[in-house]
Amino acid sequence: MPTLPAGHSARSHAAPTLQAVFWDMDGTLVDTEPYWIAAEKDLTAAYGIEWTEAQAEAMVGQALEFSAGMLRNAGVPLAVREIIDRLIGQVTEQVRLAVPWRPGARELLAELRQADIPCAMVTMSEPVLAREIVRALPAGTFDVVVTGDMVSAGKPDPEPYQLAFDTMAAALPGLEKTGIVAVEDSLPGAASAQAAGLPTLGVPNFVPLPAGTVRHEWDTLAGRGIRDLLLLLSGPVPEPAR
Q: CATH no. for residue 151?
């Protein structure tokens, strides 16, 4: 996975108060939710099981083990690992054919890279899919990548975002959570980032965020830039989970 380039410093970029941006992947960087839902429907249909929109929505942003458990509860007669492999294999094949970028995501990533503001990807997907997204972007776009297999507890637990912070902080002296913006589209993801103590921006996609989930919410990343992210860092941030 990508590592921090030599000489990177938490204060050596154009906007010193914005030290880093942590990105969710599915639904935030890329609109892969339709790919996941299609894979779920194909899997359940193979066993004569009806899969509803409500069930699909309940899986958005969840750890893959949680999603596989839901499919097993619905009647899919496969082990959790088999279900995950079937889903992620189908989604990865679709991404290889066409990466469905969310509006404004690549443009904002490019601006952050130009300004030398490091980014982390924090996803509950596994490396095989995360690598496809990383490869589709310019080298060095992400300084840290955390995938679902790297943590013992997935979103909404704070562990994924805490691991991303700890990894980046080890290479960037002076990195503070108050200087980071986490970008999420789902309730589990926003809960994870906020429980880790990070200022969190909600950009909902497939499922609306319940009112009050995050302090800051945008309809889209299109047309947004570093100046907009800086404005999010004023005011109180959530206390980390204890």
A: 3.40.50.1000
